[in-house]
Amino acid sequence: MSGPGKVSHKNRHEPMNTLSNAPTTGHGADEPDEVEISLYESRKKIQPRAVSGTFANWRWALVWLTQILFYGLPWLNWNGRQAVLFDLLSRRFYLGGLVLYPQDFIYLTGLLVMSALSLFLFTAVAGRLWCGYACPQTVYTEIFMWIERKIEGDRAARIRLDNAPLSAGKFARRAGKHGAWILFALWTGFTFVGYFTPIRALGMEVLAGALGPWQTFWIFFYSFATYGFAGIMREQVCKYMCPYARFQSAMFDKDTLIVTYDTARGEPRGSRGKKVDPKEKGLGACVDCTLCVQVCPTGIDIRKGLQYECIGCGACADVCDEVMDKFGYERGLVKYSTENAMTGGWSKAQIIRRALRPRVLVYAAVLATIAVAVGVSLYLRVPMKVDVIRDRGALARMVEFGRIENVYRLQVMNATETEQQVHLTVEGLEGITLASEPQVSVLPTEVRTLAVRVQVPPDIDSGSHPILFRLQSQNDPAIHLEEKTTFLVPR
């Protein structure tokens, strides 16, 4: 090894590919020159040019929408508490008026399934829409690049700064940029933790310097991830770390909308003046300005065809339309289109009609079915739960008048934010009675454990008998629960 990522080859008899002009046969052959083979390609820093246009406006609209939701939701109140809070310590999850418990995990499963199906649907219709417009990596990279442009200038100024020797001015600009990035990343980490710890209390703890170890860890961990991914690594995350870039082609077909370069119209490319007729020079519409490459956040040339690095953001389409306008050419040299549309010269109406193909309709139908099922389940959900656990310490015992008694532990979960007066009854055997207090009070969002004694007459046959607990809320007649268990009568 002559250095990291290098292989040195000096012995021509070793089974290794080399490049050499020296002879390779015969005992008298000269030794070949040393050849170094690079095992990796060093990263070429990408400085994207700022762009405006239809797709850029959509991208920034989603940046604003997602970040207003992310940074704003923890500060909203609902019934005197945080509107959205995943309280892991108390094992309660608040979503507006909903109070969910770990037993409601099925709803999270439904949400994850809907997210996956939505990704499949959007990808089949229009490629990497999620990546180009709403993925956190894209959103935060866009924000970090905006900060960079405000402090270091446009693309040309940033490139000059990169190539300039270290000076006080360069150090100040770089320090200002990284300082702004770090502050934004810390605010992002603080907000993230604010979804799991009441954010107002968390803010007071930060100001008082009284953060707990886990809160401190997660704030700095999420801040470091945001700073590293959006500020330093950027396109490297999309190209090498994100699995979606690798399997996206499995969800594409010839009718999927992708960012496409119209080769038939653009080639042969070449520079020319605005007043030059390209047909007289035998040129296509592409003026070979390379602006489509300069605005690309992953540094690809869309004119070489679709590549897995393309996140479908449409920046190249926006800048190409600007160039076409300057030269007086028709827009759409780079555009969203499909492979079949480019081959067959389809109109927009034909593309839209073809978008409603069986594959897309199946995805949409399954997604709608699951969404309706989850919605109906949430609407019909009873906001109280009960679990019955038999007291293992005394399975059955004889009490006064020879009656047989079983003891149970009832865990009652009140998923409402009002106190519930609950009336408890038991049935299933002749003469069965509840020997403990039938009326219980459960505080808002409380999980209360009750010791319940159930007795039957002594003439009940021995063995295991099914019984049923009924719980009825006195506050809301619609809240009633039933839970089955067994009553044991010893021999």
Task: Walk me through what this model shows.
The chain has 491 residues and is of the alpha+beta class. The chain has three domains: 1-42, no CATH class; 44-381, no CATH class; 384-489, Immunoglobulin-like (Sandwich), CATH 2.60.40.10. Helices cover 41% and strands 20% of the residues. It contains 16 helices and 18 strands. The chain has helices spanning 54-72, 105-126, 129-134, 136-152, 155-163, 168-193, 199-208, 213-233, 235-241, 244-247, 263-266, 291-294, 315-327, 339-344, 348-355, 358-380, and strands at 6-9, 35-38, 77-78, 81-82, 84-87, 92-95, 98-100, 258-261, 334-337, 384-390, 397-398, 404-414, 420-427, 433-434, 439-442, 447-456, 463-473, 480-489. The strands form six sheets. Strands 10, 11, 12, 14 and 16 form a five-stranded antiparallel sheet that branches. The chain has a four-stranded antiparallel sheet with strand order 15-13-17-18, with no helix packed on it.
Structural class: alpha+beta
Share in helix:
40-55%
Tell me the number of strands: 18
Summed over residues and divided by their number, the pLDDT gives a mean of: 89
Task: Please tell me how large the radius of gyration is.
Answer: 34 Å
Strand content: 15-25%
Unreliable runs, pLDDT <50, ≥5 residues?
1-28
Q: How would a textbook summarize the main sheet?
A: 5 strands, antiparallel
Number of helical runs? 16
Number of domains: 3
Euclidean distance between termini CA atoms: 82 Å
The coarse overall form would be: elongated
Region (Disordered): 1-30
Transmembrane segments: 58-76, 105-126, 180-197, 217-233, 360-380
Organism: Hydrogenophaga electricum
Keywords: 4Fe-4S, Electron transport, Iron, Iron-sulfur, Membrane, Metal-binding, Transmembrane, Transmembrane helix, Transport
